[in-house]
Amino acid sequence: MSLLPDSTSRHADTEAALLPALVERWSPRAYDPSAEVDASVIRTILEAARWAPSAANVQPWRFIVARRGTPEFTAVHDSLMGFNRAWADSAALLIVNIAEIVDTEGKPRPWARYDLGQAVAHLTVQAQHEGLHTHQMGGFEADALREGFSLGERFEPVSITAIGVLGDPEALPDALRERESAPRTRLPLEELVLNAPAAV
């Protein structure tokens, strides 16, 4: 009988004290296929995204929220490519993260993707705080989502977020099971901050 992973083993080994949700956040692929997310929790994580900062406060983010077992979920899942299809069907939710790349007058919104990224980060941290896990995906057919959800040219699907309750990694294919327990690593700050060590 397999056991769920010890979540503390996935905590970030940080060099400074961070918020618990940031330390505990990681991107699993094994989700509990029977777990559901309450509507009030979905609203809470979307509210976190709503209050993200954006250039000139234009808020150029939109979301498609697809619950497992709905036609919307099937449509989003069918757009996934590669290994993503092998595990994402167990997530409780698939959220399509969309940038409004031009305004209603056709003028470009040059910071829309950046702003969307901030909104998704807010959503991710709030979801972790709510006891959920998230996994961001870029491997999907954007045109299928454009057509399936009538997005038009103003809106660009940028990523998909799987959200759910941690599941059993033994249910994953071998290659993905190995990734689930692989050590977590990050580049040191000295490589990320271009004027280090003066700045940090």
UniProtKB/TrEMBL annotation:
Gene3D superfamilies: NADH Oxidase. The keyword Oxidoreductase applies. PANTHER family: NAD(P)H NITROREDUCTASE YDGI-RELATED, NADH DEHYDROGENASE_NAD(P)H NITROREDUCTASE XCC3605-RELATED. GO terms for molecular function: oxidoreductase activity. Keywords: Oxidoreductase. It comes from the Bacteria. InterPro entries: Nitroreductase, Nitroreductase-like. It comes from Orlajensenia flava. It holds the Pfam family Nitroreductase. Belongs to the nitroreductase family. This is Nitroreductase. Residues 23-67, 82-164 form the Nitroreductase domain. The keyword Zinc does not apply.
